[in-house]
From TrEMBL:
Annotated ranges, domain HTH gntR-type: 1-70
SMART domains, alphabetized: HTH_GNTR, UTRA
Gene3D superfamilies noted in UniProt: Chorismate lyase-like (3.40.1410.10), Winged helix-like DNA-binding domain superfamily/Winged helix DNA-binding domain (1.10.10.10)
Top-rank taxon: Bacteria
GO biological process: negative regulation of DNA-templated transcription
Cited InterPro entries: Bact_HTH_transcr_reg, Chorismate_lyase_/UTRA_dom_sf, Tscrpt_reg_HTH_GntR, UTRA, WH-like_DNA-bd_sf, WH_DNA-bd_sf
Name assigned to this protein: GntR family transcriptional regulator
Classification lineage: Bacteria, Bacillati, Actinomycetota, Actinomycetes, Mycobacteriales
GO terms of molecular function: DNA binding; DNA-binding transcription factor activity
Keywords assigned: DNA-binding, Transcription, Transcription regulation
Length: 260
Protein backbone atom coordinates (compact mmCIF):
# COMPACT_ATOMS: atom_id res chain seq x y z
CA UNK A 1 0.00 0.00 0.00
CA UNK A 2 1.51 3.37 -1.00
CA UNK A 3 2.60 5.78 1.71
CA UNK A 4 1.05 9.25 1.98
CA UNK A 5 4.14 10.74 0.36
CA UNK A 6 4.00 8.29 -2.55
CA UNK A 7 0.27 8.85 -2.96
CA UNK A 8 0.85 12.60 -3.06
CA UNK A 9 3.60 12.13 -5.64
CA UNK A 10 1.34 10.02 -7.86
CA UNK A 11 -1.45 12.58 -7.72
CA UNK A 12 0.88 15.41 -8.71
CA UNK A 13 2.48 13.35 -11.49
CA UNK A 14 -1.00 12.54 -12.84
CA UNK A 15 -1.77 16.26 -13.03
CA UNK A 16 1.60 16.88 -14.70
CA UNK A 17 0.91 14.23 -17.33
CA UNK A 18 -2.53 15.71 -17.99
CA UNK A 19 -1.07 19.19 -18.54
CA UNK A 20 1.09 20.85 -21.15
CA UNK A 21 4.80 21.75 -20.89
CA UNK A 22 5.09 25.27 -19.50
CA UNK A 23 1.66 25.26 -17.87
CA UNK A 24 1.42 26.49 -14.28
CA UNK A 25 0.27 23.94 -11.71
CA UNK A 26 -0.17 26.63 -9.07
CA UNK A 27 1.60 28.21 -6.16
CA UNK A 28 2.89 26.19 -3.25
CA UNK A 29 -0.01 27.39 -1.09
CA UNK A 30 -2.58 26.54 -3.77
CA UNK A 31 -1.13 23.06 -4.28
CA UNK A 32 -1.09 22.33 -0.54
CA UNK A 33 -4.79 23.23 -0.38
CA UNK A 34 -5.62 21.27 -3.55
CA UNK A 35 -3.98 18.06 -2.37
CA UNK A 36 -4.93 18.44 1.27
CA UNK A 37 -1.39 18.20 2.59
CA UNK A 38 1.08 20.19 4.65
CA UNK A 39 3.49 22.51 2.88
CA UNK A 40 6.45 20.65 4.38
CA UNK A 41 5.27 17.33 2.86
CA UNK A 42 4.51 19.09 -0.42
CA UNK A 43 7.99 20.64 -0.56
CA UNK A 44 9.59 17.22 -0.12
CA UNK A 45 7.68 15.81 -3.11
CA UNK A 46 8.20 18.92 -5.24
CA UNK A 47 11.95 18.78 -4.61
CA UNK A 48 12.07 15.20 -5.91
CA UNK A 49 9.97 16.09 -8.97
CA UNK A 50 12.18 19.07 -9.72
CA UNK A 51 15.29 16.90 -9.47
CA UNK A 52 13.70 14.45 -11.93
CA UNK A 53 13.04 17.33 -14.32
CA UNK A 54 9.26 17.13 -14.27
CA UNK A 55 8.67 20.60 -12.82
CA UNK A 56 10.28 24.02 -12.62
CA UNK A 57 9.91 26.24 -9.54
CA UNK A 58 9.94 29.99 -10.23
CA UNK A 59 10.30 32.50 -7.42
CA UNK A 60 8.56 35.89 -7.44
CA UNK A 61 5.17 37.50 -7.85
CA UNK A 62 4.48 35.70 -11.13
CA UNK A 63 6.24 32.53 -9.99
CA UNK A 64 4.90 29.14 -8.97
CA UNK A 65 5.21 25.49 -9.97
CA UNK A 66 5.38 24.88 -13.74
CA UNK A 67 5.30 21.68 -15.80
CA UNK A 68 8.69 20.98 -17.33
CA UNK A 69 8.57 17.53 -19.00
CA UNK A 70 12.35 17.26 -19.24
CA UNK A 71 13.94 15.01 -21.81
CA UNK A 72 15.32 11.57 -21.01
CA UNK A 73 18.63 10.55 -22.52
CA UNK A 74 19.17 7.27 -24.36
CA UNK A 75 22.78 6.28 -24.90
CA UNK A 76 23.66 4.69 -28.23
CA UNK A 77 26.88 3.32 -26.72
CA UNK A 78 25.24 0.93 -24.21
CA UNK A 79 22.91 -1.99 -24.73
CA UNK A 80 20.56 -1.74 -21.75
CA UNK A 81 16.83 -1.95 -21.28
CA UNK A 82 14.59 1.08 -20.89
CA UNK A 83 14.02 0.56 -17.12
CA UNK A 84 17.78 0.68 -16.49
CA UNK A 85 18.51 3.94 -18.30
CA UNK A 86 15.40 5.59 -16.84
CA UNK A 87 16.36 4.56 -13.30
CA UNK A 88 19.90 5.86 -13.83
CA UNK A 89 18.42 9.30 -14.57
CA UNK A 90 16.16 9.33 -11.52
CA UNK A 91 12.89 8.36 -13.21
CA UNK A 92 10.42 5.75 -12.03
CA UNK A 93 10.08 3.34 -14.94
CA UNK A 94 6.74 1.78 -15.81
CA UNK A 95 5.32 -0.47 -18.51
CA UNK A 96 1.91 -1.02 -20.04
CA UNK A 97 1.70 -4.25 -22.04
CA UNK A 98 -0.56 -3.65 -25.05
CA UNK A 99 -0.60 -7.07 -26.69
CA UNK A 100 1.26 -10.36 -26.95
CA UNK A 101 0.96 -13.15 -29.48
CA UNK A 102 2.71 -15.94 -31.36
CA UNK A 103 2.54 -15.26 -35.08
CA UNK A 104 4.30 -15.63 -38.40
CA UNK A 105 7.06 -13.03 -38.70
CA UNK A 106 6.70 -10.17 -41.15
CA UNK A 107 9.31 -10.03 -43.91
CA UNK A 108 11.74 -7.63 -42.15
CA UNK A 109 11.68 -9.74 -38.98
CA UNK A 110 12.11 -12.96 -40.95
CA UNK A 111 15.17 -11.54 -42.68
CA UNK A 112 16.65 -9.98 -39.53
CA UNK A 113 16.23 -13.12 -37.41
CA UNK A 114 17.21 -15.60 -40.12
CA UNK A 115 13.89 -17.45 -39.93
CA UNK A 116 12.27 -19.73 -42.47
CA UNK A 117 8.75 -19.47 -43.93
CA UNK A 118 7.38 -22.00 -41.41
CA UNK A 119 8.91 -20.39 -38.30
CA UNK A 120 7.08 -18.27 -35.74
CA UNK A 121 7.92 -15.32 -33.51
CA UNK A 122 6.78 -14.11 -30.12
CA UNK A 123 5.55 -10.55 -30.57
CA UNK A 124 5.29 -8.15 -27.62
CA UNK A 125 3.94 -4.59 -27.85
CA UNK A 126 4.41 -2.28 -24.86
CA UNK A 127 4.25 1.38 -23.86
CA UNK A 128 7.14 2.52 -21.67
CA UNK A 129 6.52 5.15 -18.97
CA UNK A 130 8.81 7.63 -17.23
CA UNK A 131 7.27 8.81 -13.96
CA UNK A 132 3.90 7.69 -15.27
CA UNK A 133 4.21 9.57 -18.57
CA UNK A 134 4.41 7.65 -21.90
CA UNK A 135 7.90 7.91 -23.34
CA UNK A 136 8.09 5.17 -26.00
CA UNK A 137 6.12 2.57 -27.90
CA UNK A 138 7.83 -0.80 -28.42
CA UNK A 139 7.12 -3.65 -30.82
CA UNK A 140 9.57 -6.54 -30.40
CA UNK A 141 9.73 -9.96 -32.05
CA UNK A 142 11.70 -12.97 -30.77
CA UNK A 143 12.18 -16.44 -32.35
CA UNK A 144 9.44 -18.56 -30.76
CA UNK A 145 11.44 -21.82 -30.79
CA UNK A 146 14.30 -20.19 -28.86
CA UNK A 147 12.12 -18.92 -26.01
CA UNK A 148 9.37 -21.42 -25.12
CA UNK A 149 6.92 -20.14 -22.55
CA UNK A 150 8.05 -16.52 -22.88
CA UNK A 151 4.50 -15.17 -22.93
CA UNK A 152 3.75 -16.93 -19.64
CA UNK A 153 6.35 -14.83 -17.82
CA UNK A 154 6.22 -11.35 -16.31
CA UNK A 155 6.72 -8.91 -19.19
CA UNK A 156 6.56 -5.61 -17.34
CA UNK A 157 10.29 -5.23 -16.74
CA UNK A 158 13.43 -5.60 -18.82
CA UNK A 159 13.12 -8.31 -21.47
CA UNK A 160 16.93 -8.55 -21.63
CA UNK A 161 17.12 -9.34 -17.91
CA UNK A 162 14.31 -11.88 -18.32
CA UNK A 163 16.06 -13.62 -21.22
CA UNK A 164 19.30 -13.81 -19.24
CA UNK A 165 17.76 -15.12 -16.02
CA UNK A 166 15.30 -17.57 -17.62
CA UNK A 167 17.05 -18.67 -20.82
CA UNK A 168 20.74 -18.00 -20.20
CA UNK A 169 20.92 -15.53 -23.07
CA UNK A 170 23.36 -12.64 -22.82
CA UNK A 171 23.01 -9.81 -25.33
CA UNK A 172 26.36 -9.10 -26.98
CA UNK A 173 25.59 -6.34 -29.46
CA UNK A 174 22.84 -4.63 -31.42
CA UNK A 175 22.61 -3.05 -34.85
CA UNK A 176 20.35 0.01 -34.78
CA UNK A 177 18.94 2.33 -37.41
CA UNK A 178 17.42 5.66 -36.38
CA UNK A 179 14.87 7.68 -38.36
CA UNK A 180 12.79 10.77 -37.69
CA UNK A 181 9.12 10.00 -38.35
CA UNK A 182 5.70 11.46 -37.57
CA UNK A 183 3.18 9.85 -35.24
CA UNK A 184 0.15 8.16 -36.73
CA UNK A 185 -3.19 8.81 -35.00
CA UNK A 186 -2.94 5.43 -33.20
CA UNK A 187 0.66 6.01 -32.09
CA UNK A 188 -0.25 9.52 -30.93
CA UNK A 189 -3.13 8.17 -28.85
CA UNK A 190 -0.93 5.59 -27.13
CA UNK A 191 1.82 8.12 -26.42
CA UNK A 192 -0.46 10.94 -25.34
CA UNK A 193 0.67 13.37 -28.04
CA UNK A 194 -0.85 15.09 -31.06
CA UNK A 195 -0.98 13.24 -34.42
CA UNK A 196 1.98 14.04 -36.69
CA UNK A 197 4.18 14.84 -33.68
CA UNK A 198 7.88 14.09 -34.12
CA UNK A 199 9.08 10.62 -33.12
CA UNK A 200 12.43 8.84 -33.19
CA UNK A 201 12.10 5.38 -34.75
CA UNK A 202 14.87 3.00 -33.65
CA UNK A 203 14.91 -0.29 -35.56
CA UNK A 204 17.12 -2.83 -33.79
CA UNK A 205 18.51 -6.31 -34.36
CA UNK A 206 20.01 -7.74 -31.17
CA UNK A 207 22.50 -10.61 -31.08
CA UNK A 208 23.26 -13.12 -28.30
CA UNK A 209 26.63 -14.28 -26.96
CA UNK A 210 26.95 -16.75 -29.86
CA UNK A 211 26.40 -14.05 -32.47
CA UNK A 212 22.89 -15.28 -33.33
CA UNK A 213 20.10 -12.73 -33.84
CA UNK A 214 17.61 -12.97 -30.97
CA UNK A 215 15.43 -9.85 -31.27
CA UNK A 216 14.00 -7.64 -33.99
CA UNK A 217 12.30 -4.56 -32.63
CA UNK A 218 10.97 -1.15 -33.56
CA UNK A 219 10.90 1.48 -30.80
CA UNK A 220 9.17 4.82 -31.20
CA UNK A 221 10.44 7.47 -28.77
CA UNK A 222 8.70 10.81 -28.27
CA UNK A 223 10.78 13.49 -29.95
CA UNK A 224 9.86 16.09 -27.35
CA UNK A 225 10.99 13.91 -24.45
CA UNK A 226 14.07 12.13 -25.82
CA UNK A 227 17.61 12.98 -26.74
CA UNK A 228 20.25 10.56 -28.03
CA UNK A 229 23.85 10.40 -26.85
CA UNK A 230 26.82 8.47 -28.25
CA UNK A 231 30.52 8.24 -27.44
CA UNK A 232 32.84 7.79 -30.43
CA UNK A 233 36.57 7.19 -30.66
CA UNK A 234 38.79 9.34 -32.89
CA UNK A 235 41.40 7.56 -35.01
CA UNK A 236 43.00 10.48 -36.80
CA UNK A 237 42.32 11.95 -40.21
CA UNK A 238 42.45 9.46 -43.05
CA UNK A 239 42.53 6.35 -40.85
CA UNK A 240 39.98 3.80 -42.03
CA UNK A 241 38.16 1.76 -39.39
CA UNK A 242 38.27 -1.99 -39.89
CA UNK A 243 34.55 -2.22 -39.12
CA UNK A 244 31.89 0.39 -39.76
CA UNK A 245 30.49 1.13 -36.31
CA UNK A 246 28.42 4.19 -37.15
CA UNK A 247 27.05 5.76 -40.28
CA UNK A 248 24.54 8.31 -41.47
CA UNK A 249 22.43 7.60 -44.53
CA UNK A 250 19.87 9.79 -46.25
CA UNK A 251 16.65 8.09 -47.23
CA UNK A 252 15.00 9.42 -50.36
CA UNK A 253 11.49 10.77 -50.05
CA UNK A 254 10.16 8.21 -52.52
CA UNK A 255 11.70 5.36 -50.55
CA UNK A 256 10.14 6.65 -47.34
CA UNK A 257 6.72 6.87 -48.97
CA UNK A 258 7.09 3.38 -50.40
CA UNK A 259 8.16 1.95 -47.03
CA UNK A 260 5.14 3.44 -45.29
Amino acid sequence: MPTQTEDLRRRIVADINAGEPGAKLGSERELAERYGTSRSSLRQVLAALQESGLIDRVIGRSGGIFISHAQVQRSLSDLVGVPAFLANQGYEAGTRVLSTRIAAPDRPAQHALGLGPDDFVVEIRRVRLADGSPISLESAQFPADAFPGLLERQLGGSIYELLESSYGLVTSRADERIEAVNATPEEARLLGIAPESALLLITRVTFDQSGQPCEFSKDLFRGDRTRLAVTVQGRGVGVQSAVDTASVALQSQSARIKAS
